[in-house]
Amino acid sequence: MSGKIQNMVALAGNLVSRAKAFARMGYQYGGDRDIYEALGYKLDLDVDDFLTQYSRQDIAQAIINKPVGATWRGDLAIVESDDDKETTLEKEWKSLNDALSLKTVFARLDRLTALGHYGVLFLGFNDAVNTVDFLRPVIQGGRQLLYVKPLMEQSAGIESWETDTNNERYGLPTVYQLTILQPGGGDSQIIRVHHSRILHVAGEELLENEIQGAPKLEVVFNRLKDLEKLVGGSAEMFWRGARPGYQGKVDPDYQMTADTKEDLQDQIDEFEHNLRRIFINEGVDLQSLATQVSDPQNHVDVQIQMISAVTGIPKRILTGSERGELASSQDKDNWLDMIQTRREEYAEPRIVRPFVDRCVMAGALPAPKDSYSVEWSGLWEQSDKEKADVGKIRSEALKNYGSSPTNQDIIPPAAFLKMMLNLDDDQIELIEQQQEQAMLDEEREFEEGNLRAEEELEEAVRVAKEIEERERRNRT
User: Fold this and answer.
1) 436 or 66: whose pLDDT is higher?
2) Tally of domains in the chain
3) Which among 90, 132, 124, 91 has a CA at the least distance from the CA of 373?
4) Which three-class secondary structure state does DSSP give residue 394?
């Protein structure tokens, strides 16, 4: 059986399996009740659905953008040794990072991957003179990386797979079909690319399939649609219900002529379109109807809570309410723990290290002498405001501690610094060193002051003797 036929058979099997799974979704009571149909949920989702939702809905963007933004925030360094001397790999990495804005590219790749089952990074090495060369393996050694281009699943189709069970790449893509948009958003170009020129990044949540993860928005897609109903419905409800309607009661003894009816209709149309605020009529009693507007907040909170639970993003961080109301310290710690785990278990092993290793293999980066490590910027660094608040609290505690000499008898200074001010051993040691140095400086200044006083006294005695000797000579 040829490779193409095998691919078609495997694809057909996957489609049948997915169709069976989708057919079971939402059914209750042996199929008598279809919840998905009743609630208007789409059964078979594709990447277009996720991309559309991401493009048009704020919460959908937050679900993807907030973890990605926090993951790649700050500096990203490749470190080969612990000393201060910069190695060749470290220097070349900085140059490549600056030239291609790699950290920004990695963040884009991360977002594009989250929208689908996988994303790819097209590596533009200088051994490809024309598009035909893209189909050949990268020539190893001495290559230069000219450009990198992140693409989402829709623009990076897999044309063929490795079917040889004795090959180390068994079950992995061999050739990709990339759709490259031309500058200006015009026509697109389709090129076939060998897998050695592609960095394949599977979605964050993997099950049996190693190259296709679950799209980030798939598990919360129904909740996102529910939010659209609630938020959009509340706006429509306010638009229609906040402004009262009117009913007219015609006096039974009043005879309305055709001209009167036409005039009243004109007034009603002008009132409805904000061209008139007062009715002038006779024989008709206009009465306003009660407004019907309810608060959707509780219903919206339920949906947000469900989204927060499955994504791991704390509710306050997801909705951005920490800007007006500080997120709890527990929320912040959980969020930073999640981002740290994401860096260690996803961003580094699936994006950064494969990229560096691929560049080393092609010669775009020098090989490390032994190994290298990936260093991220700290997540728990305090903001200037947080530092100021902590400093103020510590200053007040220190002031109260030093106000009474008996406090030091109860809690020694070193214990107070460690237990009450939460300083680490290095900080306490630095304070003690500065105290000792201050005492030495004070002793030295005291000794120098005594020496200057003795010298001044000796000088005064000498001057007094000279004056006394001069006066004695004048008398003689």
Assistant:
1) 66
2) 2
3) 90
4) helix
